[in-house]
């Protein structure tokens, strides 16, 4: 096995290990969102909706597929299995296409995603003002710190100020509204999101190339095994070879 092939093998093993970790994380997140009792209390909104169920299903299916691809890829790379590498290459090609399509869709639908987040924030904000739930306070604080904002516009209720990013009283009065901040972030970061998807697809393409290199090496090694002479072979056999 030459140096290039050995590097491809090591890269595939590391890639599939990280791929499996990400896949396991997606499955765990999907299961937590679907079945975790604390999830319902954390968001305190009705999650028995078609959009939520589809989102959870996408997380779980994607995670399981990534785990399957990682296991098959590691088996092929560690055992020099041409069949496993072939299946790995096919499944990885499908994932690359999905990754690129998801990046393009996220870029094209960034306005729609930002509108959904704005509606979600406004719902939690209104519920917190009325119920003062600690779970909703955690959700508001997360959004406020993530987007460096506070409130939905206009005067900020005193009870909500505890969830604003830390700062002086004057700074809390000058925070931008979260609906506007969320839209600004999505409008300015949409290109970065697309770049992240395409960059991930590029790394997956490199793994696909390494898989093809290993497949070719396995085919060549099986087609032309090295010549050798058994120590117990008679001299006539050695001369024939």
From TrEMBL:
Keyword Transmembrane appears in the UniProt entry: yes
Entries under InterPro entries matching the protein: Tetraspanin/Peripherin, Tetraspanin_animals, Tetraspanin_EC2_sf
Membrane topology term: Multi-pass membrane protein
Disulfide feature: 150-164
Main location: membrane
Transmembrane feature ranges: 12-32, 52-72, 84-109, 192-214
Entry GO CC: endomembrane system; plasma membrane
Subcellular location: Endomembrane system; Membrane
Classification via PANTHER family: TETRASPANIN, TETRASPANIN-1
Name the record gives this protein: Tetraspanin
Origin species: Cyprinus carpio carpio
Lineage: Eukaryota, Metazoa, Chordata, Craniata, Vertebrata
């Amino acid at each position: 096995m030459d140096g290039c092939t050995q590097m491809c093998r090591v890269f595939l093993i590391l890639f599939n290990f990280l791929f499996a970790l990400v896949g396991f994380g997606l499955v765990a997140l999907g299961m937590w969102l679907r079945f975790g009792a604390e999830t319902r209390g954390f968001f305190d909104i009705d999650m028995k909706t078609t959009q939520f169920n589809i989102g959870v299903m996408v997380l779980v299916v994607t995670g399981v597929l990534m785990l399957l691809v990682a296991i098959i890829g590691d088996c092929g790379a560690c055992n020099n299995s041409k069949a496993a590498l072939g299946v790995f290459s096919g499944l990885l090609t499908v994932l690359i296409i999905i990754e690129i399509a998801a990046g393009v869709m996220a870029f094209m639908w960034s306005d729609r995603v930002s509108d959904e987040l704005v509606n979600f924030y406004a719902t939690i904000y209104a519920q917190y003002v009325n119920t003062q739930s600690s779970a909703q306070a955690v959700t508001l604080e997360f959004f406020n710190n993530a987007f460096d904002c506070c409130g939905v516009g206009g005067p900020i209720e005193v009870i909500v100020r505890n969830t604003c990013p830390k700062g002086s009283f004057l700074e809390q009065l000058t925070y931008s509204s979260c609906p506007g901040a969320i839209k600004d972030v999505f409008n300015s970061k949409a290109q970065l999101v697309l770049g992240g998807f395409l960059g991930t697809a590029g790394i997956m393409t490199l793994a696909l190339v390494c898989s093809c290199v290993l497949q070719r090496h396995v085919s060549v090694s099986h087609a032309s095994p090295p010549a050798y002479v058994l120590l117990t072979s008679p001299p006539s056999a050695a001369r024939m070879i």
